[in-house]
């Protein structure tokens, strides 16, 4: 029993939720809104207080997605191979290498005015770009004398021509769709090369030859959940929260972050700390009403005859009852109904003789 006591991480009845909230909330007041100490692609990543809010509210689309792509043994120490993989990942949209799309509604044609410098930068030609658009949208393409691309839309309807032009300009002509721009980085300790991509689409990136599938990581916890499962999403939440606080020079025990991540993911899906997230799952009517939309919860509870067992902290505080934590978690029982039998001995014998 003594060994079990020594191995306990917390004391029985300790209010771990309140301690975690205080341990995260107080240092959170010292966080700044923006930081500028990142370079390259990482500069687009959300940091500081906005990132903490983004994670705890469980926003499905992060403002600054970032994928860290580690390479296998053949490519991680070879810069040329790492650069080749980076080019395959880096997403290039038509709008980045085309100045504008000129629509001719009377002839049913679209002319793409290409940017020659941008084409050279991505190592493409007008003919290659025309071939990609032709295969992707099933249209006829041609190259004029100036190197611009003429597209036959096979229709003269204004709306259809306009929609086609918009789709072409937004389309991905090279790289993995959704992956964003990628760049090579090098680990200062191991000296191995890896790729950082400012986007999503881990699934397609994993299929590339040379990528180490076991070490790929995305700061988008919802994508990690879709690809690797809820446990990976939980670990991602802890890692992202811990990293965000450490970047600001704030030290928080990982146990508090683990508790919050467990609360957000134990149901099998990621739920935020909001009225539509983990608060909505609480059994207590008073606990739900104490957070937000008080009148709505009380009216619904009255209409459907809900009962509140008062098992939690919030509901007991509301009615002025002792909370079931700390000393309040201990209950005393008293036996009643039968009188105690007299003890055997001199006193017992005397009582029997009488």
Strand content of the residues, in percent? 5-15%
What is the straight-line distance between the termini?
48 Å
- The secondary-structure class comes to alpha+beta
Shape: elongated
Q: Give me the Rg, rounded.
A: 32 Å
Which stretches of 5+ consecutive residues score pLDDT under 50?
A: none
Number of strands: 10
How much helicity do the residues have?
40-55%
CATH class of the largest domain: Mainly Alpha
What is the domain tally? 4
**How many helix segments?**
16
- Largest sheet, described in full? 4 strands, antiparallel
Mean pLDDT reading: 86
Walk me through the structure.
With 354 residues, the chain is α+β, with helices and mostly antiparallel strands. It folds into four domains: 16-63 and 219-265, Orthogonal Bundle (PTS-regulatory domain, PRD), CATH 1.10.1790.20; 67-90 and 179-218, Alpha-Beta Plaits (2-Layer Sandwich), CATH 3.30.70; 92-174, 2-Layer Sandwich (Gyrase A, domain 2), CATH 3.30.1360.140; 282-329, DNA polymerase, domain 1 (Orthogonal Bundle), CATH 1.10.150.390. Helix content is 42%, strand content 12%. The chain has helices at residues 2-7, 16-28, 48-56, 79-89, 94-97, 116-121, 126-137, 158-170, 202-206, 221-228, 230-247, 254-265, 285-291, 294-304, 313-318, 346-353; strands at 67-70, 92-93, 98-104, 109-114, 140-143, 149-152, 172-174, 182-186, 193-197, 217-218. It has a four-stranded antiparallel sheet with strand order 8-9-1-10. A four-stranded antiparallel sheet has the order 3-4-6-5. Helix 10 (221-228) packs antiparallel against helix 11 (230-247) and helix 13 (285-291) packs antiparallel against helix 14. The longest helix is centred in the last third of the chain and has 18 residues, at 230-247.
